[in-house]
């Protein structure tokens, strides 16, 4: 009878350990995107979206501008100077917005523009009662290096 090579034996043992570990860890981790504390029996009409901003020496404050539907001056509905790297903005759910952040970099003006929409989803499996939750709660408006 041939001897099994040690490398083959170790590989099989390693695979068995990984499969066993994944089987245990998946039972203890809730992979559901629903936080039942933030799941509502009635579809929410509005919610907060987190804006991620770049605040640094060159940009100690950033002007954010909210446009309804399209990136057009006529659709401007909100403007504010912000001094934090994150900012919560209350908007209507299931409605398209465009958000602009104005920066300075190396003496030049830069504008970061991104679309935003708070989408509501219905959950019937993860919480004790069917409910609605808000998905996609953040928009990246940070300036790239």
Kindly describe this structure.
The structure is a single chain. The chain has 145 residues and is of the alpha+beta class. It has a single domain, classed as Immunoglobulin-like (Sandwich), CATH 2.60.40. It contains 1 helix and 9 strands. The chain has one helix spanning 6-28, and strands spanning 46-52, 62-68, 76-82, 86-92, 97-105, 108-116, 119-123, 131-135, 138-140. The protein has a 4-stranded antiparallel β-sheet, with no helix packed on it. It has a 3-stranded mixed β-sheet with strand order 4-1-9, with no helix packed on it. The chain has a two-stranded antiparallel sheet with strand order 7-8. The N and C termini lie far apart (63 Å).
What's the overall geometry? flat
The fraction of residues assigned to DSSP E strands is 35-45%
How many individual helices? 1
Overall average pLDDT: 83
* Total beta-strand segments: 9
In the CATH scheme, what's the topology name? Immunoglobulin-like
If classified by CATH, what would the architecture be? Sandwich
Helix content class: 10-25%
List the uncertain runs: 22-30
Compute the CA-based radius of gyration: 24 Å
Largest sheet: 4 strands, antiparallel
Order of helices and strands: HEEEEEEEEE
Structure at a glance:
The protein is α+β, with helices and mostly antiparallel strands. The chain has one helix at 6-28, and strands at residues 46-52, 62-68, 76-82, 86-92, 97-105, 108-116, 119-123, 131-135, 138-140.
């Amino acid at each position: 009878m041939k001897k099994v090579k040690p490398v083959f034996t170790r590989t099989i043992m390693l695979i068995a350990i990984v499969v066993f570990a994944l089987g245990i860890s998946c039972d203890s981790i809730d992979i559901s995107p629903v936080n039942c504390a933030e799941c509502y029996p009635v579809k929410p009409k509005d919610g907060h979206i987190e804006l991620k901003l770049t605040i640094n020496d060159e940009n100690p404050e950033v002007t954010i501008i909210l446009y309804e539907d399209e990136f057009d001056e006529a659709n401007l509905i909100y403007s504010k100077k912000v001094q934090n790297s994150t900012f919560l903005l209350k908007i209507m759910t299931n409605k398209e917005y465009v958000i602009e952040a104005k920066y300075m970099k190396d003496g030049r003006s830069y504008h970061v523009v991104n679309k935003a929409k708070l989408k509501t989803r219905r959950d019937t499996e993860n919480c004790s009662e069917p409910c609605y939750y808000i998905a996609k709660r953040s928009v990246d408006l940070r300036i790239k290096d």
